[in-house]
Design brief:
alpha+beta, 8-stranded antiparallel barrel, 5 helices, 9 strands
Length: 181
């Protein structure tokens, strides 16, 4: 298991954010459509414990490439200010039907699914994604910075970001809240 450390922020002007990333010497490394399926047991045991099991299918837009599935288990989230950390285990597969069958055989069922368009960037050691949900325009854009706490702090400063814009909920929690309205 690896430790994922990240901060997620609302972005009101994605064009301006792209410019800020470029000015800070960040590099665009790709764009993909991501289909996220959130799986849980029928009882909702994982969600109740604050854990997450996701099957993400990446469909590259640029550079061209094959579809890839990333299977991810995320442990319970810990917050320190606006920065989240949680244990994370993930692996890739190109056998998407096999992955879906395995989840079904384990007793997991799809509880939620959504599509997002993601732009990937690198700023030093920092991983940056700019996410947009085309079917839920009211969500707008989110920027995620992932790395060490120090790299995140440096990246926030370079990009002129503030923790006041941070979103502490996960995307599945945001989607669940949106769908209840």
């Amino acid at each position: 298991m690896a430790l994922e450390i990240e901060i997620k922020l609302h972005v009101t002007d994605p064009s301006k954010m792209r410019s800020k990333i470029k000015e800070a010497k960040g590099m665009h490394t790709g764009t993909a459509r991501q289909y996220d399926g959130i799986f849980d047991f029928p009882s909702g045991k994982l969600f109740k414990r604050g854990e997450l099991f996701r099957l993400r299918v990446l469909e590259p837009v640029w550079p061209d490439g094959d579809k890839t599935a990333i299977i991810t288990f995320k442990g319970k989230r810990k917050l320190k200010g606006a920065v989240k950390s949680r244990e994370e285990t993930e692996f890739e597969t190109h056998d998407i039907p096999g992955a879906l069958l395995t989840l079904k055989e384990m007793g997991l069922e799809k509880k939620m699914e959504y599509l997002k368009s993601t732009e990937f960037y690198k700023l030093g050691k920092l991983k940056i994604t700019l996410d947009h949900f085309p079917h839920y325009k009211e969500l707008g854009y989110f920027l995620e910075l992932e790395g060490t706490r120090l790299d995140i702090a440096k990246g926030m400063k370079k990009l002129g970001l503030s923790e006041k814009d941070a979103e502490k909920l996960s995307y599945p929690e945001i989607m669940a809240r949106l769908l209840k309205k």
